[in-house]
Amino acid sequence: MATKASRTAARMMMAPAVIVLLGWMLVPLIMTLWFSFRNYLPLRGGDLGFAGFDNYVRFITSSAFWPAVLATLTIVLGTLIITVVLGVLLALLLDQPMWGQGIVRILVIAPFFVMPTVSGLVWKNMFLDSVNGLFAHAARAIGVTPVEWIIEAPFFSIILITSWTWLPFATLILLTAIQSLDSEQLDAAEMDGAPKIKRFWYIIVPHMSRAITVVILIQTIFLLSVFAEIFVTTAGAFGSKTLTYLIYQRVLESQNIGLGSAGGVYAIILANIVAVFLMRIVGKNLDA
Amino acid sequence: MGQIELKKVTKRFGETEVIPPLDLVIGEGEFVVFVGPSGCGKSTLLRLIAGLEDITSGTIEIDGQDATAVGPAKRGLAMVFQSYALYPHMTVRKNIAFPLKMAGMDAAAINAKVTAAASVLNLTDYLDRRPGQLSGGQRQRVAIGRAIVREPSAFLFDEPLSNLDAALRVNMRLEITELHQTLKTTMIYVTHDQVEAMTMADKIVVLRAGNIEQVGSPLELYRTPRNTFVAGFIGSPKMNLIDGAEAAKHGVATIGIRPEHVTVSKDGGDWQGRVTVAEHLGSDTFLHVASDLGQMTVRVGGEMNVRHGDTIWMTPDMTHLHRFGADGLRTP
Ligand SMILES: Nc1ncnc2c1ncn2[C@@H]1O[C@H](COP(=O)(O)OP(=O)(O)OP(=O)(O)O)[C@@H](O)[C@H]1O
Ligand SMILES: [Mg+2]
């Protein structure tokens, strides 16, 4: 058991890490909060004093706000649906005994390690490009006019890229969930007269429900801040401007740090709401 | 309904043959116990009968019909698993109702059956709980409930009591035996506990490495074990098996005598030995004895005052002496 002296020693040893982490989080957070109440225009006079809640009001009353909310929701929901549905199917597939299982599992996780900027560029230039992209080649091969994916279907393109990045994550978590299912439960259900599909619905899906929730919440937090994929493909054009992208434009293109910071604070609040649910679910998981 | 016949059934996992060709008939309404050491293939054999595992060769007939290619759901058998295999996200009611729901029965009929099963198994107060909120014995009963509502032609139990504590095990043993007497349905019961086998079975099947060593009623196995393996496996404490010169006197390779068939005296007898451990159970005392013939166990009455280190004399009861040839088989 820990004595008083060893506890003190432990605290001293942890202190540097805790202080760095706190500083790392708190300094930017406080700066954002501070700027969000200032009228700060770097190229137009610099810090022009307190603005009260003006920035907050202006951010949400701007004509770009609701379309950005809609774009964010489209990308988040679209990616979630694709990754969860395909993730479950892929996990089921990977759970089957097969030749070269180890290698296949490593290959499946690989996209997760590709940086968003890189995957965005790869998809844009190698797949979606209307002249040199693989999709365009395929279209021409069957005699169809190639589609300008990024212009004609910007959301589809972005969701495709984000799903490609996040599918491995979902698959991996769901695979571990499937593997933790007691095979005797499936045997019992089979003897009880449940065919494969019903065993999936009545046994496997409920067993995975918590893992699915965790996947949804974690992905939501990260997908709310999707940026690179948009930046390198549409650059916010064609209605694909999300909240994150809007904040970026306010700060760097309009050079209005106060307004952007207010948007940032909204984003922090949003992410924290999701995080609270996540903590609850994960906490419950640990209790059970 | 409920006769099961295995004909030349074999099972291999890859290269390893777990069940060599095996023939077995399980009669209607019988309580058959598969018993044998860990890893001998009891569960595998049960899963083959259930249809959860494909047999490599041979045929399985249920009620005279070839069921080899029939799926587990269609064989009309119900199984109770060692881990209970309850569905954790469903209430007790839904667990018991699950097979009926899968069979497409209407809600009123399901409800009536579940209520009836619950009252038989003393589960009425727990119907709206989840398995996680039940004790081990209650979970066991839910698993049995889920099996009986299907009205199967035979029940398969895979070590259903091994996760329960000793007292509860004795209780559940009685409950299952009573259930068998009420339902009169064929039951196949797997265990590695020979006491369970002796107390519950109409017929015991002793398995070793997938081979059937002997089939018979508990008393047959106790009185006339076919070989040294069965002799050592059935009965508690184990039969003393003695080989060497003493066995040669009887013209065989091995002789066997059960601890309860030896008379012990402090004054004189056939074999001499020194008590290493005396286990006093009150009614009986089991003496572990280091003798010239090797380590032996004998039973004496609870009153006999013997202690560690005492020298005693043992005399076997010749009418209960078992003789085994060099091949391990019983000789008359
Ligand atoms: N899926 C499998 N693949 C390969 N070998 C298996 C498989 N299942 C069982 N075996 C082997 O078959 C043999 C019999 O296993 P089984 O589970 O039937 O034993 P058991 O008699 O039920 O033992 P226990 O009393 O420990 O439950 C074991 O040697 C086991 O290693
Ligand atoms: Mg077993």
UniProtKB/TrEMBL annotation, chain A:
Q: Where in the cell is it found?
A: Cell membrane
Q: Which InterPro entries match?
A: MetI-like, MetI-like_sf
Q: Which family does it belong to?
A: Belongs to the binding-protein-dependent transport system permease family.
- GO cellular component annotations of the record: plasma membrane
Matching entries from Gene3D superfamilies are given as: MetI-like
SUPFAM superfamilies attached to this UniProt entry: MetI-like (SSF161098)
> Under what name is this protein listed?
Sorbitol ABC transporter membrane protein /mannitol ABC transporter membrane protein
> Taking every annotated instance into account, which residue ranges of this chain make up the domain ABC transmembrane type-1?
69-278
Q: How does it sit in the membrane?
A: Multi-pass membrane protein
Membrane-spanning regions, if any?
A: 12-37, 64-94, 106-123, 155-178, 260-282
Automatic annotation (TrEMBL), chain B:
Q: Which CDD domains match?
A: ABC_MalK_N
Recorded GO cellular component terms are: ATP-binding cassette (ABC) transporter complex, substrate-binding subunit-containing; maltose transport complex
Q: Does the keyword Transcription regulation belong to this entry?
A: no
Molecular function (GO) terms for this protein are: ABC-type maltose transporter activity; ATP binding; ATP hydrolysis activity
Ranges of residues in domain ABC transporter: 4-234
Q: Which Pfam families match?
A: ABC_tran, TOBE_2
Kindly give the InterPro entries that the UniProt entry links to this protein.
AAA+_ATPase (IPR003593), ABC_transporter-like_ATP-bd (IPR003439), ABC_transporter-like_CS (IPR017871), ABC_transpr_MalK-like (IPR015855), ABC_transpr_MalK/UgpC-like (IPR047641), Mo/tungstate-bd_C_term_dom (IPR008995), NA-bd_OB-fold (IPR012340), P-loop_NTPase (IPR027417)
Q: Which domain of life is it from?
A: Bacteria
> What SUPFAM superfamilies does the database record attribute to this sequence?
MOP-like, P-loop containing nucleoside triphosphate hydrolases
UniProtKB keywords: ATP-binding, Nucleotide-binding, Transport
Which PANTHER family did the record assign? MALTODEXTRIN IMPORT ATP-BINDING PROTEIN MSMX, MALTOSE_MALTODEXTRIN IMPORT ATP-BINDING PROTEIN MALK
Family to which the UniProt record says this protein belongs: Belongs to the ABC transporter superfamily.
Q: What is this protein called?
A: Sorbitol ABC transporter ATP-binding protein /mannitol ABC transporter ATP-binding protein
